[in-house]
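Researcher: Last one for today. Full complex below.
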Amino acid sequence: MSKALLVLADGTVFEGTSFGSEGETIGEVVFNTSMTGYQEILTDPSYKGQIVTMTYTQMGNYGVNAEDIESSGGPKAEGFVVREYLDFPSNWRLQMPLGQYLRENNIVGIEGIDTRALTRHLRNNGAQMGIISTIDSDPKSLLGKIRNHPGISALDLVRDVTARESYAWNEGCWKWGIRATERQSDRYEGMAKVVVYDFGVKFNILRNLVDAGFNVRVVPAQTPAEAVLEMNPDGILLSNGPGDPETVTYGIENTKKLIGKKPIFGICLGHQILGLAMGGRTYKLKFGHHGGNHPVKDLKTGRVEITSQNHNYCVDINSLKGQVKLTHRNLFDGSEEGMEHVKLPIFSVQHHPEAGPGPNDSTHLFRRFREMMEAKC
Amino acid sequence: MPKRTDIKKILLIGSGPIVIGQACEFDYSGTQACKALREEGYKIVLVNSNPATIMTDPEIADATYIEPLSSEILELIIKKERPDVILPTMGGQTALNLAVELSESGVLDRYGVELIGAKLPAIKKAEDRELFKEAMRKIGLDVPKSAAITSMKDGLDIIEHLGFPAILRPAFTLGGTGGGIAYNIEEYRELLERGLKLSPVHQVLVEESALGWKEYELEVMRDRKDNVVIICSIENFDAMGVHTGDSITVAPAQTLTDKEYQRMRDAAIAVIREIGVDTGGSNIQFALNPKNGRMIVIEMNPRVSRSSALASKATGFPIAKIAAKLAVGYTLDEIRNDITRETPASFEPTIDYVVTKIPRFTFEKFPEADSTLTTQMKSVGEVMSIGRTFKESLQKALRSLEIGSAGFENIETNIEEIKGKLKTPNAERIWYIAQALRQGMSINEIHELTWIDPWFLHNMKQIIEMEKEIKESGVRSQESGEILRKGKEYGFSDKRIAALTGKTESDIRQMRYDMGLMPVFKLVDTCAAEFEAYTPYLYSTYEKPFYKIAECEEQSPPHPPLTKGGQRGVVECEANPTNRKKVVILGSGPNRIGQGIEFDYCCVHAVFALKELGYETIMVNCNPETVSTDYDTADRLYFEPLTIEDVLSIIEKEKPEGVIVQFGGQTPLKLAVPLEREGVNILGTSPDSIDRAEDRKRFKELLHKLNLKQPDSGTAMSIEEAVDVANKIGYPAMVRPSYVLGGRAMEIVYDEASLINYMERAVKASPEHPILVDKYLEDAIEVDVDAISDGNNVVIGGVMEHIEEAGIHSGDSACSIPPYSLQSSIVDEIKRQAKALAKELNVVGLMNVQFAVKDNEIFILEVNPRASRTIPYVSKATGIALAKLAAKVMIGKTLKDLKLHKEIEISHVAVKEAVFPFDKFPGVDTILGPEMKSTGEVMGIDEDFGLAYAKAQTASNNRIPTSGKVFISVKDKDKPHTVEIAKKLRDLGFQLIATIGTAKYLTDNGIAVDVINKVMEGRPHIVDMIKNREVNFIINTVTGAQAQKDSLSIRRSALQYNISFTTTISGARAVVRAIEMLLKKQLSIKSVQEYNKTSET
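Model: Here's the assembly. Have a good evening.
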């Protein structure tokens, strides 16, 4: 149990204990209010560039397993901050303790700090860059390292997490009592084909597409629109992903070319890219939305869905000047959560209908995507 | 869409007396519902037989009926009040069952009353085991294999398929009454027979056992637009097989991955939709096989529940309040979250701490009861605690229990005993698990014995390892500072650390002060700090400090210097005390026999009163069931254990003008002297006066000074001394250890042999713990007096004449306001004496005096210069809110200021009756004695004693018959008294039957009686008659252990077959008066508000 320090860009220092890999990591420090799902959170590519603080205090309780991952190749978050790490997981699907998982994947983790105080600090002062170190115990030196970092807003993080090659996906969502191999879909013939632009896609989006009856193909973020259109998909999904949407210029350009050609469904970063592609504007929230309890109202049905959230940026729907209408609103802070094109079969949401982690209240949106295509055909 | 405008008047049904399985959580939910609905402009009609509730305060509803919860009475109320709707989901199983009864009997249709919250089909679908299972299968959810059994024969056929162990649950009973686990055919037959009898519909569910599986609960809410949210997930520490009310439970769920949690969440949502609970909250229980994750749905409560009260307190989300608003048509997104103000109620609370609930048991009251924990609930109360980690929260909960535990104390035992205690669930198991860990038992072995999830056990192991570190370090020097800090973070109390290191609690406290190691307070805010919270609902914790470094200034040191405690920076505390004038009110902790809802009622009144006077009120309590721990009762709520350590931390933070200790019963009273010693201002009667009344010697001097009488008495340090004392004062004598609550271990002995037996069996006498021997005044009338004093003037609140004679614990006796048999000169003299006592003790606030009247002589039994158990009853009977007035007096108002000049004379009669948990403890005798056994109380109110008594009996489920057969079997001493009773019963048209001795005596006195065999005299005997329901009422008094044992089966079967009975002659007399009136007059009802109006004029 070695010492670890968390230093924020404003000079705030938390002293704790290391429970992951030895080393040092820099990222934007954000907090997530989900009480379950740390494994999904860690492997969510949208957390690239960010250090995640969990507001719930007991972490590691159920260990990690091979199934509940949102990307391959281990955690994507830059670091993990928790109140108490418990190194004695208990769960029938458990394969490894969380600490070991972090160490094997070279992820730095700090525990034993007042995460509530940190959360309040971030809430009041905004998300900011921070550093966790288990090797440098001089806070001033660590602060200097933050200062020398360009900050994540300037970075195109999508490049780091997108697929290198195009691939087909055929695994459905986790269901109790059904093995992963049995969840594979092998019915390709006659199924609607969707191409997923991978800006850092969560596997659960792909799994939900399979469950909704799609033939799924994932393409790297830089894939030219023309190449995608050549595949002649029935619809295109713009995935979630990390960072500032404005840095994903190629994504915006390609999307522009796809609008009007194919039905499009955007999720999170995909929603923002869509907004930018239509000439709109995006802005950054003070500390973002990261959790699994935000109520989002579907303005068409009046129904409230409890949603999974993970974003720091938002689309300013007004800036789209009547091309779209607002379809979803976040009831916590009134922020705009979803839009629909007034003429074209295009819609998108800011939250995560795929859950993983979080509630499944919005998974019907994948069916809606399907129905939209069928209506068009 | 806003609320419904077609509704004007709403009838809300309360849950009646506090019983095991239905405690004050329903006062909390009902009160919240009333407030929420009145806020919306609806007229509220409330009915509840329990006077010790806040909901029955006249200000809470527009018309309040303290009447028996029977369908006849409900029909009268409906007829008179003509409500548009009934909200049946706030009063537990009692209200739900009544709603079903009213609905099925056509009363609701007749008066055009609609059920809101849950409709009849939903209630039936949720409550009927078979319908429920069918519904679950329909939506693809797994349920245990089972069958609903209505006969022994079917039961024996079915068990072949299910196998053992099997779980039995009688349908429609409270808290799983009569349920159990059968491991073999013999137990199975026994449980099935009992269950079939106890179930009002004679149906028992026999079920595949999920024994040892993990148990979870989800609290779900739904609105009429079908928006559904989960408020809280709860994971049981104890595995399946222990009733969830008896289980230690933890929120949120700890060992589920998100996938597994969402699967459970989806299932819960599907359940509430399929069952069709339109609006409001439900509790859904799941079992999970830890080996493979198979999940089954166990049950659903289509109403607010004990768990929803816990979930409300655990998250800050007021389920009952929101449920009430949903019932009248609001949707979740139309209701604001009070705590964050900005955000709506349509969300799922997320918490950043761990909540632990531990049930409180009182097996010491029922030594004959089987203390094994099963699927039938046996606990009488619970505590909840909040900590940042499970370890902290668990240890805080242990010391909240107030059973003398400051943590995981060492137990002198051996491994064999430990194994036994681990294998069979029992109230002390958690301490035995700690002991097992201390003695090196592996987690695996403990898990195999207990089925408790290893995650919990590992946490406990960390606590035991920490204990070792503390012990070894001795917490001697600055170097041990880190160990002390970590110990506090783990939730160790100063007292436990002191015990481990051979120091005193105040040594440890001082050491902490020196180090600057103080708890901080964090908010319960429903959102894990994502939004700002405006409601100061706080808990303590030990957290780590953090600090800020200067930006890149070359000269500045790398970081701030260390504090004396070796810390750097400051720890964040969110208490933010105000500068207002403020008072801390200490609550009463967990419900237990002897200290229940009555004290919470008083504390809440203190809060209301001081708020009225512009004080900031600060409540400290750890009982999640109560109104006092509602975040909007007091201005500030500290959900904390009521120990000197925890209370002092709050006082040091808040710096109040004073602390009120006299409303919460023994719990805060015990803290009075230690707090005063720390310089805390105790408001009201001084701790010294309290001591004068409690210390035997000083009390004797006090009475002597005032020239008042008390029964002869003495103290004994040994058996020989006890015999000497008894000989001197004469038999019968009342014996008990010094300083006890609720009459524990108190007995009446009639001769030397039984005295010696008591001394050998019940107590260990020693110079530190002498035995008190009092002359027992046989057949004396006991009288309770509650009075209020401002230090100068004293006003009598009420004089209560007990029905049962002195010697029956006052908490177990029925009593009447005004006195129903005492001469007015005696009553006047009693009042005079009470006033003299209050003056002499310089009482500022409330005082209770217990008198015994024998042959027109008045004796003082006890004086308690504090709020008593009877305060709510007296207040409801007279319409004077005594506790409120007392709180005002305690901060300096005079009775004159408060316009209370003299006592209230009422023209009606209010009878209080106690309610007992005997049905939950098979084999326990129902005979009353000096040991308090009741869990709750009811009040009957009417124009005449007989009618009020009859109502009180009906309300306590001991309905008085107006025709039929009365069985009489009394001890010799009572036989002469029985003649008149028997004669009257004959005259009233009853048939009499009696055992041979009693029959002979009555026949000799000219009364026609049939003789029936005692049980040992051959069949058919009295128990056969009871089982055949050929008896309508039983009068049974006994003396001596043998006679009591011989006649036990009579009383147990009466209880089992719900035949009303009395075990005292005084009770029998009251019953006769009640029957006389019942035959003469129609049953009628009147609201509290109407009674109060008559009293005023």
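Chain B touches chain A through 73 residues (CB under 8 Å). Chain B has a mean pLDDT of 93.
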